[in-house]
Amino acid sequence: METLKYTFQAEKRVKHKAHVGVVGSANLEVIFLPTNNSFSTVDISSKFEGHSAVWKSILERFFAENNCLADIEINDFGATSGVISLRLLQALEVANLDNE
How far apart are CA 75 and CA 44, in angstroms? Predict the structure, then answer.
């Protein structure tokens, strides 16, 4: 099991907590929490070790394109890069829904 931690400068605060995905075979869970920080944090727990360069690349691209400000928790059980990107976008969408 590997634990990774990243921070990214960001400005666009998410509106709400979001929880998407499940921890299961070739999938992952992503949780977004609003924060008062001036940077986003990403804490990853992954079943597999040695993929920090891949995670860093995916996250750098995500934050470059979305600039979202949140505390993010990711629990990975072998998701592919495509699934990771999809879940991050899905969580961002849910975190910014207007619940009226």
Answer: 6
Strand residues in the chain grouped as ranges (E): 2-9, 12-13, 18-21, 28-33, 39-46, 68-69, 71-76
pTM to 2 decimal places: 0.92
* 16 within 8 A of 71, measured Cβ to Cβ: no
**Burial group, residue 92, by CB count within 10 angstroms (0-12, 13-18, 19+):** buried
CA-CA distance, 28 to 74, in Å (whole number)? 7
Q: How many CA atoms lie within 13 A of 30 on its CB side?
A: 21
Per-residue confidence of the chain (100 residues) as pLDDT tens digits? 899 999 999 999 999 999 999 887 778 999 999 999 999 999 999 998 999 999 999 999 999 999 999 999 999 998 999 999 999 999 999 999 986 4
